[in-house]
What we know:
The chain is mainly alpha-helical. The protein has one domain: Arc Repressor Mutant, subunit A (Orthogonal Bundle), CATH 1.10.10. The protein has helices spanning about 25-45, 55-65, 70-75, 80-95, 115-135, 140-160; strands spanning about 95-100, 110-115. The longest helix is centred in the C-terminal third of the chain and has 21 residues, at about 115-135.
Amino acid sequence: MRQITAGQGTVTNQHYNVKTFHSTNSVGYLLKVSHAQMLARAEAIFAPNGISFVQWMALLKLSEGQAQTASDLCRAMCHDNGAVTRMLDQLEERGYVTRQRSVQDRRVVELALTAAGEQQVAALKPQFVEALNGLMDGFSKAEFAELTRLLNKLLLALQTKGLAGAEG
């Protein structure tokens, strides 16, 4: 068994310990379960509109300029190439996106929203925002701001430090 180290630097705050750690009090577990439940609720909102939540998020990412290519979309949505390619095939078939070879680099395929894609984003955004607000209704404005701040802090730590011991 290999020794797990602190990764980059010394761990000064030991929030977990072997005696009290349980899978259900892990931040990772809580985030995963929260994500799964939020995804299930989101899918229920989008299903009657004939589009999945993940498909709508891809349209939203394109609409917001967070992605111009399938690779960009993979990174922005934390999905693998195969899943994004299949999703883009479906979205293109439905007339929500187009693919075109880049004028600057013919190896690159650029994505663009169609008017129908923009319409899907605009039509469903209010429903999604309302659902999110309903979900967060039990949080004060300060709690919501703190939760968002802490999640961004965790994300930054994961991006800069990674998970201790996971480097190899």
